[in-house]
Specification:
Alpha-D-Glucose-1,6-Bisphosphate, Chain A, domain 4, seven-stranded antiparallel beta sheet, 38% strand
Length: 167
């Protein structure tokens, strides 16, 4: 079996760690930036190990559903979840747009306190993938940054708003 591809994105935000943690763990804030350029609907969000995060991204009359199960919740330091594509009833399915996309992606987000700023390290790796899933994930890795950076740009604006006391 091939070595597993790992996507890592480091970013420093101009906000204290507690605020960054809130943006990742409070559904009303999370929905504002997670899934840029689409409407993000969070149907369920149980922030605990074993808890479910059921999400939907809507655009142009279409929906993409995802089912995540939190593996680790360590406030305000770390979040780990297993994320899968799902149908509207939250059953795990193959990704309809990319049939060889990994059935489960491990998302690991670490929040490093740097005083007035926070370093976030996001890591994505497929869980127990087939060879085809490894190849699909590896081929798509160079495009991941665009989506995450677009969401992070919205986060930058959200932190400016929160720091100004507008919310």
């Amino acid at each position: 079996m091939n070595e597993l591809p790992e996507y890592v994105l480091d970013r420093v935000f101009n906000a204290p760690r507690e605020m960054v943690w809130r943006a990742w763990t409070e559904p009303e804030l999370l929905a504002r930036w997670y899934g840029p350029n689409v409407e993000t609907v969070i149907h369920k969000f149980e922030l605990k190990a074993g808890g479910l995060w059921l999400g939907e991204m809507r655009w142009d009359g279409k929906s993409n559903f995802s089912r995540s199960v939190f593996q680790r919740v360590t406030p305000p330091e770390r979040l780990v979840w297993h994320q899968s594509t799902s149908d509207a009833e939250w059953n795990v399915i193959a990704n309809p747009m990319m049939p060889d996309w990994p059935r489960v992606i491990v998302t690991d987000v670490a929040f490093e306190d740097m005083g007035a700023t926070t370093k976030v390290r996001l890591t994505w790796v497929p869980l127990e993938p087939t060879e085809a899933e490894i190849a699909c994930f590896a081929a798509a890795m160079e495009r991941f940054g665009g989506g995450w950076e677009a969401g992070y740009a919205i986060l930058d604006e959200l932190f400016e708003e929160l720091l100004a006391g507008d919310s």
